[in-house]
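Class, carefully examine what follows:
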Amino acid sequence: MKRVVLLIALSFGFQSLGQQVRLKEANLLYNKMAYYYAAEAYEDVLDRTRDSSEVAVKIADCYDKIEDNEKAVVWYDYLGNNAQLTQKQLLRSAVVRRQVGDYAGSVGQLAQYETNYGRNDVTKQMILEHGALESLQTDDGTYCANCPTEPA
């Protein structure tokens, strides 16, 4: 029985050591700005562990930097659901949402940003641009609705 307990303890110890080594490798890749490979390494770390609070921040940032916007949104959502979004991450999340076409979600996050941190030129401009984007999406395709169809 003691051997079984010892084997289980050793197995968890080696697994933990493997996670630490892979996390260290991921951090090195991140620091070298090899974000694509760092994201892969961080996801590998997540496959081996349950705690993802430290890793999720780095994964979201990696995907944002390599412009894999769909994955960045997923990770920013994860951070938002766990109340871990910083001021910069909240703004980046709004920008990334906009890039994937989730304009309503982007404006919602911008409103949250303004509530938490106050209005600034960036948030004001993005909210104004959202209205323009909505009007372009509902445009019927004509250049000028009031212009005559034939020249006079």
Q: What stands out?
A: The mean pLDDT is 80. The helical segments are 2-31, 35-48, 53-65, 69-81, 87-99, 103-117, 121-137. The CA atoms of residues 113 and 147 lie 41 Å apart.
